[in-house]
Amino acid sequence: MAGVDQTKIRNFCIVAHIDHGKSTLADRIIEKTGLLTSREMQAQVLDNMELERERGITIKAQSVRTVYRAKDGEEYIFNLIDTPGHVDFNYEVSRSLAACDGAILVVDAAQGIEAQTLANVYLALDHDLDVFPVINKIDLPSAEPDRVKDEIEDVIGIEAQDAPLISAKNGIGIEDVLEAIVEKIPAPEGDPAAPLQALIFDSIYDSYKGVIIFCRIMEGTVKKGTQIRMMATGAVEDVVEVGYFGAGQFIPCEELSAGMVGYITASIKNVKDTAVGDTVTDNRHPCAEPLPGYKKVQSMVYCGMYPADGAKYPDLRDALEKLQLNDASLFYEPETSIALGFGFRCGFLGLLHLEIIQERLEREYNLDLVTTAPGVVYKVYKTSGEVIELTNPSNLPDPSEIDYMEEPIVSAEIMVTKDFIGSIMELCQERRGVYLGMEFIEENRALLKYDLPLNEIIYDFFDALKSRSKGYASFDYDIKGYELSKLVKLDILINKEEVDALSFIVHADSAYERGRRMCEKLKEEIPRHLFEIPIQAAVGGKVIARETVRAMRKDVLAKCYGGDITRKKKLLEKQKEGKKRMRQIGNVEIPQKAFMSVLKLDDKK
Amino acid sequence: MTKNNNLEIYIHIPFCKRKCRYCDFLSFACSENVQKRYMDALKKEISAKSIKYESYVVTSVFIGGGTPSIVDPFWIKELMELVFDKFTISETAEITMEMNPGTVTKESLGLYKDAGINRLSMGLQSANDRELALLGRIHSFQEFLSAYASARSVGFFNINVDLMSALPRQSVESYMDTLDKVLNLSPPPEHISAYSLIVEEGTPFYVAYEKGELELPSEEDERLMYEKTEEILKLHGYRRYEISNYAKEGYECRHNVGYWVRENYAGFGLGAASMIENQRFSGETDLKKYLENPLAEREAEVLSLEEQMEEFMFLGLRLIKGVEEAVFKETFGKSIDDVYGEVLQKHCKEGLLIRERGRVFLSTRGLDVSNYVMADFILS
Prior knowledge:
The complex is a heterodimer.
Chain A: E1 9-16, H1 22-32, H2 50-55, E2 62-69, E3 75-82, H3 90-98, E4 102-108, H4 115-126, E5 130-136, H5 145-156, H6 174-184, E6 197-206, E7 210-219, E8 221-223, E9 227-230, E10 236-238, E11 241-245, E12 250-253, E13 255-257, E14 261-265, E15 279-282, E16 301-307, H7 313-326, E17 331-337, E18 341-348, H8 351-363, E19 369-371, E20 375-376, E21 378-382, E22 387-390, E23 402-417, H9 421-430, E24 434-442, E25 445-453, H10 454-457, H11 461-468, E26 474-485, E27 487-494, E28 497-498, E29 504-507, H12 511-525, E30 533-539, E31 542-549, H13 565-580, E32 582-585, E33 588-591
Parallel strand pairs in A: 1-3, 1-4, 4-5
Antiparallel strand pairs in A: 2-3, 6-7, 6-15, 7-14, 8-13, 9-10, 9-15, 11-12, 11-14, 16-18, 16-19, 16-20, 17-18, 21-22, 21-23, 23-25, 23-26, 24-25, 27-28, 27-29, 27-30, 30-31, 32-33
Helix pairs in contact in A: 1-6
Chain B: E1 6-13, H1 32-49, E2 57-65, H2 73-86, E3 88-99, H3 106-114, E4 119-125, H4 129-135, H5 141-153, E5 159-165, H6 172-183, E6 191-196, H7 204-210, H8 219-235, E7 239-242, E8 245-247, H9 254-260, E9 265-268, E10 274-276, E11 279-281, H10 287-292, E12 300-302, H11 305-316, E13 323-324, H12 325-332, H13 336-349, E14 353-356, E15 359-362, H14 364-368, H15 370-374
Parallel strand pairs in B: 1-2, 1-9, 2-3, 3-4, 4-5, 5-6
Antiparallel strand pairs in B: 6-8, 7-8, 10-11, 11-12, 13-15, 14-15
Helix pairs in contact in B: 1-2, 2-3, 6-8
């Protein structure tokens, strides 16, 4: 690979709204560039985690290098860097974009531009990428390519009249896309002889090779034996291997030089040492300064995770440890709950990230989990002058020690068709949103801008948005900062005993409503006992809502004769098994899923 | 462990005129031709398998269903002749047959009597014709009355009547009226089984229930009917001896009590289970397969000592007198406290179990929530 011609390299990514066909287009590009035969193609090559494929979203940035023989007779190296497709992973997206020189914008010919499309395009433009659009799904009966082209020009302000019209699914128009990549995406720049400056856009842990750094070489050259240093974390190691990304495999090469995209291994044990956004340099000939844009990843959403079976605590710890090897944005620390025993307080980039981790723990590590209500990080200013970053509601100091509290606020953009503006504004209002403005991006669609407390959108905002707009609204947000807020801790008492794992922080104005619904929900979840069980919601010791689980009056099988015995026994075994899976709080047995009820307060039956 | 050589026999006749709307038993309507083939298969099965039971003395026979009275009464007679021929039947054996009041005549009842049947179990369920229709029963209360009178007249002196409470749209008054009418029979039945309706999966009732179309009585009314049953029957000289069973002194159903004290039982016919020396055999539930080969060996499940203890407890506790601690010890070689000490203590403390004079039994409240208590006796 030595002496690679920079002018024949194209480093790019694909930006799109979820479901607009990003992964399918990526597959077609890989297929048409010929490094893979059709037989080798798994559906959607880039999304290689099982979960990603099921959910149709990309969680980890992936990358692939292919070779394309263009109509001008030259061979071009395409480095396609796939970016995560969800707002939880905005920072990762920004670093992947920074590794590219251009971007393909995929827009659905029927649906047009969505809020997430906009967010991603602006992010790409912010990184000075050359963006060219392609209109996908043109074979749909509802496709309106001309309308969509106009929309792209009006809303984003990029040239769209000669955008390739394609169907990634059916392989229509892919050649046009490939030629456009050669024509419209600039070749990389950078001096191979300059001091090494490489951007980490992802890293994964491999049990044989250690951490594998995914990077884009901006300046200089790296090869086996180079002593590298991660400028932000300070880790120093000797390079063991460099190479590029085949489809689904790592292909070693001699060196990586300015303009190239590839990987580095250097027997690094922990992905924490290779933070996304950090700059890799040559420790002996370092570059003057790191690349701009590095941020330490911060967890935005926290929750408690407990093994359903207390004996599985070590298994949960091991599983979290393993997941963290590959996911530097996952945070966890041990905590103890009176109700749930030993577990972990875990931090995530957002609710989707939380759900993904939860699913992976359950599916890949076969763990049964009890998850407590997710919450955000509150800042508690104590009268003593001390400031606490509160991630677990149980640790809230006594109200007498609190001067004031702040909560995180996001700037949100919601794109919605005209008919639903009213109901979406109402939703934002209910969620304590501050209206900032509205722009009509075309006759029928508007972009609503709101500041919203993060705490109001982590539970079910997205679902509510979808249901109140019949699926037409799309949504994107950015963390804006912290603002003063009137917050209280809502406690739940079951049979007069406070259940720590059910406490959560809530705005004073919504405390009553949430408390009431929480009691109702718990009433549904908690089975009847021999005695009556009061369920109370309280703020600062004052009960604000109450429900009662009535005493069980009857639990009996009327008939049991010779042929019924086996069946009857199964029934009793099931009942006993059910009891085992409950959590004992005082003399009340609470099913595991009750601890998750706070998540479902909005699903009205 | 003591071994006794008592054996109970259960014979299943799966046919019905039509299936009741609450019924989840193995039963269905069938042509007479199939019924005939079934009876032949049944006789073949009994003949062949009886050899295994040569050393046993049969203390009870129970012909259940379905509706045994739907088949030609001569076939029942033939069947019983075979049973008497192939087994050693105790002089005092209880021989019961279930019947539907809509399917018998004085003649057929006489034939049953001649066949050796000495106890009848009559499915009445309700004395209210509207309720009977709603349940999908094929008979009226009037038909029951004439069947009952005929049964008495041909010499049945041990009769059970099945009743159900908590029926859809049933009022407490209506249920009390049913009880009243049954107690006013002359003479009144020796035995009454009173079941609270259970809406079982796979029944038309369940479908209606799922759709919210089954108007069941309120919990208060349901409990009231249940409480009244015991109260009123007691006044009339019936003793409750099991969760749903009441009898005049000495008329407890020996066959059913046998299940609860874990006697050996051999089941014949479609779906009939057996338990012999702590091995349980499931029955063949596929009619076609059964007709093809009624002698097929059934799958045996050997009950572990733990499973035997579990059954000893949850079956024994169905009886009002409960279980005897000494019998537990004698049967399993361990004291009941060694195995269940904690559970016993917990439920005694909760007032659901009572330990008195060497017995453990459910309290009145414990009977209401017996599943809750019994589940704790499952060991695994």
